[in-house]
Design a protein that fits this description.
Chain lengths: 301, 794
C-alpha cells in the first residue's frame, strides 16, 4: 500500500516536474520578451525625446493604448464574446501586456514618484491595479505549478463534489466485512478500527472546506498527516480492510485537492474584486488626466 | 449598453461578477466624485498642476500667467482643449524673458542667418559620418517636422518637474536632431573649426606684428621713459564680462603715442582743425556781371563749402536742392555757369547768411535741431551741443563781424547789397593782432581771443601778403565796447555813444583808438550788424524802434536774459523752424553807400606770434581765414564722434549726399582726429557705414553660436601663455583687410585655433564636451529686465 502510494506520488511529481520544466522555459522566453520590448520602449522614448518632442505624449499614449487593450479583454469576457479557449489565450496575453504596461508606466512617470495630489491618485490607482494583477498572475501560476487542480472542475461544482465524496466515504466505512461469515472465527474489529479512523480523523475533514491556510500556502502537511493515519492502520487490517483503506485514501486525496482548488479558485475570484473596481477608478482618472494634459499642452506636443 | 455597466437584478442566481461589476461601478463613481470634490475644494486650479514649478518660477500662482487659454475660472481651463496657436503660451514667456523678434526661430536667429548656416554646414555634413542612433532617430522621428510646426519655449523647457529641475538642460542628441551635421562627440567627428575665433575682424585696428617688431622698439629707442607693454595682460584682461577678452582703455594704453595724432600736434601739413563754418570763395565778378544779388561777400575768401555746412543747409528741401546744384560747380570760377546755377549760387549765399544769422540770433539747438541726419527726428539740445562742440556764440559773432559786417541789416531788412559787394576784411587777425586794448582781460577767455581784432598796424600790412590769407586784407571795425566777448559798439560810433552815454565803457584808450582810425566813415547804429548795435542808445526813434536793434540792446544785458519780446520771437521762430528769415526785397542796384568797406573802423590790438591754430592746441574753436575751425580736444571727442555716429548710417560708400560728405571727410586718411586710423569702419549692407567706437562686448557677440570664456583656461596654459592658443603669424595682410568695408573679410595677426588643441583636454572621461560647453542656444540672448514697479506715491 505504501509503495503504491509513493509510486503514485512520484508519478505525479515526475509529471509535474516535466510540465514545470516546460513552464519554466516558456516563462523564460516570456520574461526575455518582456524585458526586450520594455527596453525597446525605453529606447523609443529616448529617441523621441531627442527629436525635440515631449516623451510623455509617446509613453502616455502607449500606456493608454495598452490599458484600452486590457479593458477590451474584460469587456469581451463579460459580454461572452470569447470562447473559453480564446479566453485562456487572451488571459495569457492580458498578463503579458500588463507587464509591458508596467514598463510604459515607469517611463511615463519618469521613474519618479508623483508631485501632486491628482498624480498621486493616478499613481495609486495604477499601482493597485498592477499589484492586484500581479497577485492574480501569481495565483494562476501557483495553481498551475502545483498541478493539483483539475481545470475541468468549476468553482461552483466543488461543494457538490465534496458532498458526493463524503457520501462515498460514509458508504465505504459502513460497508460490513464479509470475512467472518466465511471463516467461523471470532470476528476481528477491523471495521471498528476503520470507523474509529473515520470518526476521529475523516468525518470532519469531509464535512467542508478544511485546511484553508495550508492550502493558501500550498502545504500538503495536513494531507500527509491523514495519509499517515491510514497507512498506520493498513498493516493491521485484512485484505478487505486494506481495500477499504485504499479507497478511503483516494477519497481523502481527492477531497484535499478539491479543498485546494476551492481555496485558490476563491482567491482567484476575490482578487478580481480589487483588480476590476480599481481599474474602473483608474479609467476615470485617466480620462481626466488626458483632458487636463491637453488643456495645458502649451505647444509641447 | 447601460446594462453592461449596471447589471439589473433578477431572481436567477447571481454570478459573482454581478457583485464585482457593481462594486467596480461604485468605485468609479466614488473616484470621479472625490476627484471633482478635491478639485473644487482646492485653491484655483492648483489641484491639476502636475508638479511644482522650478524655483525661478515658483512665485507664479496663476496658471493663466503661462497657459494663455487657461483663464482664471475653475473650469475655464477646459478652453485649452480647443485647438489654438501653440505659440500663444510661449508669448507669455517672453513677457518676462525679453527676446528679439526672431524668438521662435531656431536659436532665435533670423531666417537669413539660419539659411546661410545650413548651406555652409550641408557641405560639412557630406564628409561627416552619421552615427547609427542619429540615423534611427531621424528616420523614426524627424525633427524637421517639429521645427516646421514652429518651436515653442516648451519644446525644450518643460516645466512642472520640480523646484530643482534644470530648465535649460538640453542633450547633445537633442541638438543633433535638428542639425544637418550629425556626429557622435566633440572628440569624435565634430567638424574642424573654420577660422575660429575670427568671425569678424577686430573693431580696433591694431597691428600686433608691426607694434611688436617695429613701433615698440622704435619708441623705446627714442624715449626710454615711455612705457612699452611687456606682457599681453598690459592691454588685455577679462575682469567683467568673462566672454570678452577686453582691451584696456585708450588712456591706459595708446595715449602715450597716439594722443598727439588726435589733437593734431603731430600733423605736419594741412589745418590741424576741422573747418566747420566757412564763407566759400566765390567768383564775385561773374556774379556781378550776371546781376546776382548776393549782398556783401568777402572777395578774398578761397575757402570751400564745408561738408558740415552742406548738411546744415540741407536741413530744408530748398537747401538740399541748392547743395545738389552747387556741388557740381567750381564756386570760384562761375564763368561757365548757367543762369540757373548762378541763381543757385546766389541762393546759396543767402542760405549761408541766414544760417550765420540764425546761429547768432538763436540757439544752435533750435537752428540745427532739424538737421536731416540721424533717425530723422528732431535732434536733442545735448546732441546739437555735441554736433557743434558747444560752439560759443562769440566765435560766430566774431566771424560775422569780420566776414559779413552788415549781415543783420541784410537779413532783417536794413541796408542791402544787391550786387556782390566785396568786403575787404582781413580775416586773419591773430598773427598780428590780439584783443583790443580796452579789453585787457579778454585773453582770459578763449572766446575773446577768437574775436576779430586788429590794430592800426594791420592797415599798414594791408598790401602785404598774409601767411594765411591771400585775399585783400581788412581791418575789422574797432570794437569800443565788449560784453562777454560780444562787440557792442564798434569804433566810429563813439561820438554817438559818447553823446548818449558819456560814461560808456570806452575809456581814453578807446578814444585813442578811434582817433587812430581816422578817415573811416562812421556808421549809424541802425546800419550796423545787429550784435554790433547792441548796447547803443541811438537818438533816432525810428532806429531805436527797430526790432533788431532792441533785441541787440536786450541781448547786451549783462545777464543776457531774453526780453519778453525776444521770447515771443523765439517762440515764433521755433514754430517756423527751418525757415530762416528771407532777405527783404533786394534792390537790383547796389547800395554801395551802406556796404562800403571804408566804413570799417580799425582797432589797436595786441601783437601775438601765436596763430589761432596753435592757440587751440588743446582743442576747441578758432578762426582762420574765412573759416571757423574745430580742433579735437582728445580721445572720445564728442564733436567727431557725434558727426560720425549720425552721418554713418546715411553714408553708404560712394554716396554723394551731404551726410556722406561729412562722413568721408572725417574718415579720410588725413582726417583730423584720426579716428578711423584705429576705429575700423564697417559697411553695413543697406544701412550705410558705422565706425566701431564701442569695444567688443557681450552685446557685440550676440548672434554668435560659439562662446568661449578665457578665465577657466588661463590656469592650464603652458609656458607660452596666450601664444599657446594664439600664435603670432607675421607677414599676414592684416591692415589690408581694413581697406574694405566687409568686417568678415579678415586676415588676423594670429593663427586660427585648431580643434585638436581643444580636444587635447575636452575628450571622453577628461573634460566635459557636451554641446553647451562651447555653444549657446539663444544666440541673440534672453534677458529678464527689471520689473516695472510703480513708484509708491501718496
Amino acid at each position: 500500500m505504501k509503495l503504491l502510494a509513493r509510486r503514485a506520488a512520484n508519478g505525479s511529481m515526475g509529471a509535474g516536474t516535466s510540465s514545470s520544466m516546460r513552464g519554466v522555459s516558456g516563462q523564460t522566453i516570456t520574461a526575455i520578451l518582456i524585458v526586450a520590448i520594455s527596453g525597446g520602449l525605453f529606447w523609443l522614448v529616448q529617441i523621441y525625446t531627442s527629436a525635440l518632442r515631449d516623451p510623455r505624449y509617446l509613453d502616455g499614449w502607449l500606456l493608454a493604448g495598452g490599458m484600452s487593450l486590457q479593458l477590451f479583454f474584460h469587456v469581451a469576457t463579460k459580454t461572452g464574446r470569447l470562447s473559453p479557449k480564446s479566453i485562456m489565450r487572451w488571459r495569457t496575453f492580458h498578463i503579458f501586456v500588463g507587464y509591458l504596461l508596467v514598463a510604459a508606466f515607469l517611463s511615463h512617470s519618469n521613474f519618479a514618484l508623483p508631485n501632486s495630489a491628482f498624480d498621486w491618485a493616478l499613481w495609486t490607482g495604477f499601482v493597485l491595479v498592477t499589484l492586484s494583477g500581479l497577485f492574480g498572475t501569481y495565483l494562476a501560476w501557483s495553481l498551475k505549478t502545483k498541478g493539483r487542480v483539475d481545470d475541468r472542475i468549476g468553482y461552483d461544482r466543488i461543494p457538490l463534489r465534496v458532498a458526493e465524496l463524503a457520501q462515498d466515504m460514509k458508504a465505504i466505512v459502513a460497508m460490513p466485512d464479509p470475512s467472518p461469515d466465511a471463516i467461523a472465527l471470532p470476528p476481528a474489529p477491523y471495521d471498528a478500527w476503520i470507523i474509529d479512523l473515520y470518526t476521529n480523523h475523516l468525518q470532519d475533514f469531509f464535512e467542508g472546506l478544511r485546511n484553508f491556510s495550508s492550502h493558501l500556502v500550498a502545504s500538503q502537511r495536513p494531507l500527509k498527516r491523514l495519509i499517515d493515519e491510514i497507512n498506520h492502520l493498513a498493516p493491521y487490517v485484512d485484505a478487505q480492510g486494506q481495500e477499504k483503506l485504499s479507497r478511503i485514501w483516494n477519497l481523502v486525496a481527492e477531497k484535499d485537492a478539491l479543498d485546494f482548488a476551492r481555496v485558490h479558485f476563491g482567491l482567484t475570484r476575490a482578487w478580481l474584486f480589487v483588480h476590476v473596481p480599481v481599474t474602473y477608478g483608474l479609467l476615470v482618472l485617466s480620462v481626466l488626466h488626458v483632458l487636463v494634459v491637453y488643456s495645458y499642452a502649451s505647444g509641447a506636443m | 449598453m447601460w446594462r453592461f455597466f449596471w447589471p439589473q437584478e433578477s431572481d436567477s442566481p447571481k454570478p459573482p461578477s454581478f457583485r464585482r461589476d457593481r462594486l467596480a461601478l461604485l468605485v468609479a463613481l466614488v473616484t470621479a466624485a472625490s476627484t471633482l470634490t478635491a478639485f473644487f475644494l482646492s485653491k484655483s486650479t492648483q489641484f491639476l498642476m502636475p508638479g511644482p514649478l522650478t524655483s525661478a518660477h515658483a512665485s507664479i500662482e496663476n496658471c493663466s500667467s503661462c497657459h494663455s487659454k487657461s483663464g482664471d475660472g475653475k473650469l475655464s481651463w477646459i478652453h485649452g482643449l480647443v485647438a489654438g496657436n501653440p505659440i500663444d503660451d510661449s508669448k507669455a514667456c517672453i513677457t518676462c524673458h525679453k527676446m528679439p523678434a526672431t524668438a521662435f526661430f531656431p536659436h532665435g536667429a533670423s531666417a537669413e542667418v539660419l539659411l546661410a548656416s545650413t548651406k555652409r554646414l550641408t557641405k560639412v555634413a557630406a564628409s561627416t559620418p552619421e552615427p547609427l542612433s542619429a540615423r534611427a532617430q531621424n528616420g523614426a522621428f524627424p525633427a524637421h517636422d517639429v521645427v516646421s510646426r514652429g518651436l515653442t519655449c516648451a519644446t525644450c523647457h518643460q516645466e512642472h518637474k520640480g523646484a530643482n529641475f534644470k530648465l535649460g538642460k538640453i542633450s547633445n542628441e537633442q541638438c543633433r536632431s535638428c542639425h544637418v551635421v550629425k556626429f557622435d562627440s566633440f572628440d569624435g567627428h565634430h567638424p574642424q573649426f573654420e577660422n575660429y575665433p575670427f568671425d569678424r575682424r577686430t573693431r580696433i585696428i591694431y597691428d600686433h606684428a608691426s607694434h611688436f617688431e617695429k613701433h615698440f622698439p622704435e619708441v623705446a629707442k627714442k624715449d626710454a621713459a615711455k612705457r612699452i607693454p611687456d606682457t599681453c595682460s598690459t592691454c588685455h584682461d577679462s575682469p567683467k564680462d568673462r566672454r570678452v577678452m577686453a582691451v584696456a582703455p585708450f588712456e591706459k594704453t595708446c595715449t602715450g603715442c597716439h594722443l598727439d595724432q588726435i589733437t593734431g600736434k603731430e600733423r605736419a601739413t594741412g589745418p590741424k582743425g576741422i573747418a566747420f563754418l566757412a564763407l566759400p570763395g566765390l567768383d564775385l565778378q561773374t556774379l556781378k556781371n550776371k546781376n546776382a544779388a548776393i549782398g556783401e561777400w568777402p572777395e578774398a575768401s578761397e575757402a570751400g563749402l564745408t561738408p558740415f555746412m552742406k548738411v546744415m543747409i540741407s536741413r530744408t528741401e530748398k537747401g538740399r536742392a541748392l547743395i545738389k546744384t552747387v556741388d557740381k560747380l567750381n564756386l570760384q570760377d562761375l564763368s561757365n555757369a548757367s543762369d540757373d546755377q548762378i541763381t543757385a549760387v546766389k541762393d546759396l549765399t543767402w542760405e549761408i547768411k541766414r544760417l550765420l544769422y540764425a546761429l547768432i540770433s538763436g540757439k544752435a539747438s533750435d537752428v540745427l535741431g532739424d538737421l536731416n541726419i540721424g533717425s530723422g527726428g528732431k535732434l536733442s539740445a545735448s546732441l546739437v551741443a555735441d554736433l557743434t562742440a558747444s560752439i560759443p556764440r562769440d566765435v560766430v559773432v566774431g566771424a560775422q563781424q569780420q566776414w559779413l559786417p552788415n549781415l543783420a541789416s541784410e537779413i532783417t531788412g536794413g541796408a542791402m547789397t544787391a550786387d556782390p559787394q566785396p568786403v575787404a576784411n582781413d580775416p586773419e587777425p591773430s598773427n598780428s593782432n590780439a584783443a583790443t586794448t580796452e579789453e585787457p582781460a579778454a585773453a582770459d577767455t578763449p572766446a575773446a581771443s577768437d574775436e576779430p581784432q586788429s590794430s592800426a598796424e594791420t592797415d599798414e600790412k594791408k598790401e602785404a601778403p598774409s601767411e594765411n590769407a591771400s585775399g585783400t586784407k581788412y581791418d575789422p571795425p574797432a570794437c569800443l565796447m565788449r560784453v562777454l566777448g560780444q562787440c557792442l559798439m564798434p569804433s566810429g560810433q563813439e561820438n554817438k555813444a559818447e553823446g548818449a552815454n558819456p560814461e560808456g565803457a570806452a575809456g581814453k584808450d578807446d578814444s585813442a583808438n578811434a582817433t587812430s582810425n581816422g578817415g573811416n566813415e562812421k556808421r549809424a547804429a541802425g546800419s550796423l550788424p545787429e550784435p554790433m548795435r547792441a548796447g547803443l542808445r541811438d537818438a533816432r526813434p525810428a532806429e531805436t524802434a527797430q526790432v533788431a536793434g532792441e533785441k541787440a540792446t536786450s541781448q547786451s544785458d549783462e545777464l543776457l536774459r531774453p526780453t519778453e519780446e525776444e521770447l515771443r520771437e523765439m517762440k515764433a521762430r521755433s514754430n517756423d523752424r527751418g525757415r530762416a528769415p528771407e532777405p527783404r526785397a533786394i534792390p537790383s542796384q547796389p547800395d554801395t553807400a551802406s556796404t562800403s568797406p571804408a566804413k570799417t573802423a580799425p582797432v589797436i590790438g595786441i601783437e601775438s606770434n601765436i596763430d589761432p591754430e596753435s592757440w587751440a592746441e588743446y582743442g576747441g574753436w578758432y578762426r582762420q581765414d574765412y573759416a571757423i575751425f574745430y580742433r579735437p580736444a582728445g580721445h572720445k571727442d564728442k564733436f567727431i564722434y557725434s558727426w560720425l555716429f549720425l552721418t554713418g548710417p546715411q553714408a553708404p560708400k560712394g554716396d554723394r549726399s551731404p551726410a556722406a560728405a561729412v562722413f568721408d571727410f572725417l574718415t579720410s586718411k588725413d582726417a583730423q582726429g584720426s579716428c578711423t586710423k584705429c576705429h575700423s569702419v564697417d559697411d553695413i549692407q543697406g544701412k550705410g557705414r558705422i565706425v566701431n567706437f564701442s569695444p567688443s562686448s557681450a552685446e557685440t557677440k550676440l548672434g554668435r553660436f560659439t562662446t568661449f570664456i578665457h578665465e577657466p583656461h588661463l590656469g592650464v596654459m603652458q609656458n607660452r601663455g596666450c601664444l599657446t592658443c594664439h600664435s603670432l603669424e607675421k607677414n599676414r595682410p592684416y591692415l589690408k583687410s581694413y581697406e574694405q568695408g566687409n568686417p568678415h573679410n579678415f586676415a588676423s595677426n594670429f593663427g586660427a585655433v585648431n580643434k585638436d588643441l581643444c580636444q587635447s583636454c575636452h575628450a571622453t572621461k577628461k573634460v566635459r564636451q557636451d554641446c553647451l560647453t562651447c555653444h549657446k542656444y539663444h544666440v541673440n540672448g534672453v534677458i529678464t529686465p527689471i520689473m516695472q514697479t510703480k513708484i509708491p506715491m501718496q
